[in-house]
Amino acid sequence: MKFWLLDKKLEECFGRTPGNIIATRPLREGVISDYTVTEKMLKYFINKVCGKFIFSPRIMICIPSQVTEVEKKAVIDAASQAGARKVYLIEEPIAAAIGAGIDISKPCGNMVVDIGGGTTDIAVISLGGSVVSTSLKIAGDKFDEYIVKYIKKKHNVMIGERTAEDLKVNIGCVFPKIQDTEMDVRGRDLVTGLPKTLTIHSSEMLEALIEPAMMIVDSVHSVLERTPPELAADISDKGIYMTGGGCLLDGLDKLLQEKTGINVMIAQDTVSCVALGTGKALDNLDALEGKARR
Length: 294
Description:
The protein has helices at 35-50, 69-81, 92-99, 140-155, 161-171, 202-225, 229-238, 252-260, 273-283, 285-293; strands at residues 3-5, 21-23, 27-28, 31-32, 58-63, 86-91, 110-115, 120-126, 129-136, 157-158, 182-189, 195-201, 240-243, 264-266. Helix 6 (202-225) packs across helix 8. It is flat and about 60 Å long. Among the domains are: 104-137 and 211-270, Nucleotidyltransferase, domain 5; 140-208, Actin, Chain A, domain 4 (Alpha-Beta Complex). The longest helix has 24 residues, at 202-225. The chain contains ten helices and 14 strands. The strands form five sheets. A five-stranded mixed sheet has the order 9-8-7-13-14, sandwiched between helices. A three-stranded antiparallel sheet has the order 10-11-12. The chain is of the alpha/beta class. 43% of the residues lie in helices and 23% in strands.
């Protein structure tokens, strides 16, 4: 019999489980990859928050800005089957902007770059909605994949996703550092098949991560090209807001600022911006519904 690990605390079990346990990620690249496990996970979280509730709760879920109608329906169906009375969807960059404390109701342009685990969402927001937006599947998980491929190609050593994550957090960078840093990692030598210890430098991480980082920069440039002139002028004055855990990668804000010539700011509590913004939107749901009816 197989068991699935749903708790975020058990993320460290990836790659270390026996045959009778499967450590799985039911959400991949911002969308549902395993419907059954996603439904069970949502049901677990609803019961944990609400306990034994008499009435089914209303739920608001963040989605990437460029998901398809089929993917939206899968999210709504999974939440409904998990016990939700009504399901509301909100685009991640809008939630991130609200969580970052940006007033999105005014008729002025705000650009948000939200770099999460599975997707990077870039949007220009005005009057409470996205004017121009894009979503690409280059984010934290893809950074880890590029590190694994780089170590394999250059050192002929295979490392796991968890080790790649540690490298990214501790010495990863996409802009040259003043002082080169290093970190010891262990992996499996592909020639001998035996464990091997390597010393990896931040300059090597720059080589490994610059390609996906430039994909994000190019997407930001593409969104700016499609932005109306008046809103582009607002963004030039206010700057670009970065949210999500992926924006904490060392030098990513400097790289974006150098390539665009626009001031780049990292929001406070950047990891929780989307969650906080979703909570604020849910608190004002009655007002939003009344506005929609009018």
